[in-house]
Amino acid sequence: MPVLAPAVYRRRKPTMNVESERFAAQPAVHATGQSLLDEANAWLAAFERGLRRRDIPALRTLFLDDCHWRDLLALTWDVQTVSGRDAVTTALAAVPSRFTPENFRIDPRRTAPRVVKRAGETVLEVLFRFDTSVGPCDGVLRLKSPQDGAPREAWSLATALDAIAGHEEAFRRPRNRSHTVPRDFRAPNWTDLRQADCAYDGRDPVVMVVGGGQAGLSIAARLRQLEIDTLVVDRHQRVGDNWRTRYHALSLHTRTHVNHLPYLPFPETWPDYISKDQLAGWFEYYVTAMEINVWSGTEFVGGRYDDSARRWTVTLRKSDGSERTMRPTHLIMATGVSAVPAKTRISGIEAYRGEVLHSGEFTSGTAWAGRPVMVFGSGTSAHDVAQDLEASGALVTLVQRSPTMVQNLEPTAQLPYMAYEEGPSVDDCDLISLGTPMALARQSARLTNPRALELDRTLIDGLKASGFQVDEGEDGIGWQLKYQMRGGGYYFNVGCSNLIAEGRIKVLPFAQIESFQPQGIKLRDGSTRPADLIVTATGYLGQREMAARLLGDDIAERIGPVWGIDEARQELHNMWRRTPQPGLWFLAGGLAQCRMYSKPLALQIQAIELGLLPDDLLNSQNLRGPSPTAPSTSQR
After folding, report:
1. Which of 556, 552, 564 has the alpha carbon at shortest distance from 581?
2. Among 138, 329, 461, 572, fewest CB within 10 Å belongs to which?
3. Which among 423, 478, 480, 481 has a CA at the least distance from the CA of 446?
4. CA-to-CA distance for 125 and 444, rounded, in angstroms?
5. Cα–Cα distance, 259 to 79 (Å, whole number)
6. What digits encode the pLDDT tens for the residues 234-291?
7. What is the DSSP letter of 23?
8. What secondary structure does DSSP assign to 536-592, as a single string?
């Protein structure tokens, strides 16, 4: 495996002069004369005492009534959030004694305690470190000052497992890093060893990952560093084709420094917004550099789970038609939030005799110059396809079914990531993001959304004047929460909205369509509209539907929703944690989400393979797992 160093992610100088919740330069000494560091240490010391003694009254004095605790495996072996002082202190007092949390301290490697704005509130934000019987952990603490000048109390607390002691990521372990020139020139070289490892002759992987995009590569890289044998299968012919084969102008809509994959940051020379072809090429390089085993051009046909053997039997079909059966212990669905194109959602379209493409199949509009085309949908894909067609000279009509949130790419769409623009490192920002419970994220969105509307008012008014229906976030959420709830429903304007406002792309409400005709559509007023091409940007079915197709309806019913907000747990449904189906996991999202959440997912799989997940927890969740006294031998 390559010798790695901890990833050093760059920070760009801020380019947006926008007021937001960012790190604020504040005095290092509180009004009482106590330094911020002393305040933080005093709280952590009191917390450790209360936690050790299971002293609920003492713990209650440390938390506000409206507090939150988010744990990522550190004290619960789960990803979950608890809210309210009574619930939080009760849950903390019930932390199993086997964890023995201790040695809470400020982490000198990270950003020092400082006063910041979070969700509209001024807080002392503290990044800390502590230890448990399992391994070292990280934490994020946000303290608010009562108006009477009393000691600060916790508004939010987050705890996250960093590593399993004795089983750290390979690059973190002490070893001889010198390079030795081989003396046997006929011995297998690096390429020979990699090809043999990836062939899986006579062995099965411990983990099989379905999907070779950012989710699949992120988790495979994590598991490789934990020395857990992992194979990624992807139906595309080349790694990166999930980006490479898409429409010509596609690029990321969030800034480069937010989007690194684990361990290897993007080059300093890259632009702020990465093109699809740059990203595709990087994915190929990443597979080589991180020594990830990938079978491209390989379709995952289906699989079934053997309860007695506690492993899957899966069938793979390669591009040459040959098939291979494998028996992995874990199966990770990394096919993305948008897993299966939704091609049958437009009633009556079968009467149309022209060409119909789903947006996922669209690559270029050059063949449609001067010809009438219609794009059904108003999300990101619909806008991008419409803009590409208009640039090619097509006569474009965007058919809108429901209001869409629109924000300019700069600066409003980037507001949720302003903390990455200055101050802490990306690693620290990732911890801060993981340490933000959903309630705070919602509160922050309700404060940010009016500012975004103010910044984009000219654009929004122009869209309304053109007949485009704009979702202004009346429910008080921004695009990030909309993405978590729906997987879409918004568009970052990179020019298409201007074309709509200028009338160069027409807008037609779907409700005005009476029926489809062989050459186009008929409107309710009796008129007709011709169309030589219809592009259905009607979205995608999610990972649950993909699981149903590949693993069967019974498993899909057993796991329930995938993605979308689980209000009871204040987390996403079945994401990056154990599901009701043993051995089945889901990972999805943008590059930043995959970078952050691939770590807790990998640690859970490692813990199961080591026999560390206790049976009582597994049984309480209707899950099965290895006995903690009988470590698995399947880890390689």
Report:
1. 556
2. 461
3. 478
4. 16
5. 22
6. 999 999 999 998 878 888 988 998 999 999 999 999 999 999 999 999 999 999 999 9
7. B
8. E---EE-HHHHHHHHH-HHHHHHH---SSEETTTTEETT-SS--SSTTEEE--SSHH
